[in-house]
Amino acid sequence: MLRTMTRADLGRALDWAAEEGWNPGLEDLEVFHATDPGGFFCAELGGKMAAAISVVNHSPSLAFLGLYLCAPAYRGQGIAHALWLHALKHAGDRTVGLDGVPAQQENYRKSGFVLAGQTKRYAGALRPGHGKGVTSASAADHPLLIEMERRACGYAKPTFCAAWLEPAQTRYTLVHRSNGTPDGFLTLRRCRDGWKIGPLCAPGIEVAKTLLEAAAQHSEDDQVMIDLPQESAPLAAHCLEMGLEPMFHTARMYRGPAPLPGPGLHAVATLELG
């Protein structure tokens, strides 16, 4: 049976993601589900969840695919592929993006996805510093930050970003201000192992460095992970200079017209929802 996930099902899928080494955030579930409650799907056999996938509609023009997982006992039987076809119907005629493992590029291509670039994960401890001009985000900042992120990545995620920017016990959004006006920000969240940063938007590398220095005050000496598209070369170079190490890369692919990233250094919010 192919059906829409419940919140409990999504929690189970995130546990599977953790077992695969994807390291979800401690408070991802509620934000993910609230973004598009009808965009999470599972295959069920004998009362047990066999496979999972998400196709979350962010806007009338774009959806994002993620959390494509199959329990080991059910692999190689066509169950996950049937779920894939079922879930993609949810996107309608929207462009659909994904960040997939490179080994699956050919399979994604058969479903109409075209390679647009790579996203590389860097991991390590951040270098502490003064973080001058950085404060916690306020509710009044949110509309500007959402627009800043839209320009940087090339597509809008208004429902997701509005929830993502809300403060939580293990998720913080920090804003850099010039003359009192926000010109860059990042979100830092505690994960099952260490922390992840995403998104990060900044007008240049100096603001990005200052934001990362401020984030280090929260993460201390713990490992921090950040996912950078290939357009973020200056930020990638700074990560290497700080001693962060590249872990793996994913293939950014789209079915339909690909959005065009705008100016501004950028880190991906999540590999699951874009």
DSSP E strands, number: 13
What structural class do helix, strand and pairing data support?
A: alpha+beta
- The shape is globular
In angstroms, what separates the terminal alpha carbons?
28 Å
What is the H level of CATH, i.e. the homologous superfamily of the largest domain? Gcn5-related N-acetyltransferase (GNAT)
Q: Output the CATH class name of the largest domain.
A: Alpha Beta
Largest sheet: 13 strands, mixed
Number of H- or I-type helical stretches: 8
Level of helix content? Answer: 25-40%
In CATH, the architecture of the largest domain is: 3-Layer(aba) Sandwich
* Overall number of domains: 2
State the CATH topology of the largest domain.
Aminopeptidase
Structure in words:
The chain is an alpha+beta fold and 274 residues long. The chain folds into two domains: 2-116, Gcn5-related N-acetyltransferase (GNAT) (Aminopeptidase), CATH 3.40.630.30; 122-267, Gcn5-related N-acetyltransferase (GNAT) (Aminopeptidase). The chain contains eight helices and 13 strands. Strands 1, 2, 3, 4, 5, 6, 7, 8, 9, 10, 11, 12 and 13 form a 13-stranded mixed β-sheet that branches. Strand 10, helix 7 (205-219) and strand 11 form a beta-alpha-beta unit. Helix 2 runs antiparallel to helix 6.
